[in-house]
Amino acid sequence: MTGDSGSPGSRKVYWQSFAAALIATIFSFGALTTIPAIFSTLLAGLAIWIAMVDLDQLIIPDLANIAIAVLGLALLGFETPASALLEETSHALLRAVVAGGLLLLIRFSFEHFAGKEGLGLGDVKLMAVGALWLSWISLPYALVMAAFAAIMVIVLRGIRQRAWLDRTTEIPFGAFLAPAIWAAFFLERTDLL
């Protein structure tokens, strides 16, 4: 996505992003009730923004992670009766700590054994805030979907370019993880997970 914002390549990416956001909005409002549909649409928009930035700059904006956290807690507040809000919030925060902690452990382990950073802190924070949106059951699905999508893109790119990745190639995992979090949320809400 690099290049000047007026170039044909960057315009194509923006149109693709707009189309993805429109499709996510249609799916959300077609399958979910109003409040979850609104939040699903907002999460999809943030996932698309994260993917675009991560593909272009190999970073995940902290502002996007903060927005996902705030919206996830707000959705919890909308959907949870006041009598259960404290308990449900503590469960959501526990999921965030466990999910973020797991990716942090993977990050440190890879760095220790491979001698280089393999997972950015933005990815760790994204998984933590994404866990606020997901249940214990859908969390692994989000990680598996993201990893599978990343592997497929790498394999297809390798086949197309007839060149394989080496140890120095950086992969923008957040570009796969953010949409996978939205997909897991949507699938869970439509009882497909």
Can you tell me about this structure?
The chain has helices at residues 8-31, 34-57, 62-79, 82-114, 121-130, 138-161, 174-189. With 193 residues, it is mostly helical. The protein has one domain. The longest helix has 33 residues, at 82-114. The mean pLDDT is 92.
SSE sequence, one letter per element = HHHHHHH
Number of helices: 7
Residue-averaged pLDDT, rounded?
92
Report the structural category.
Answer: mainly alpha
The shape, in one word, is: globular
Strand content: under 5%
Number of beta strands: 0
- What is Rg? 17 Å
**Number of structurally distinct domains:** 1
The poorly predicted ranges are none
Distance between the termini: 33 Å
Question: What are the defining features of this structure?
Answer:
193 residues; mainly alpha; 7 helices; 77% helix
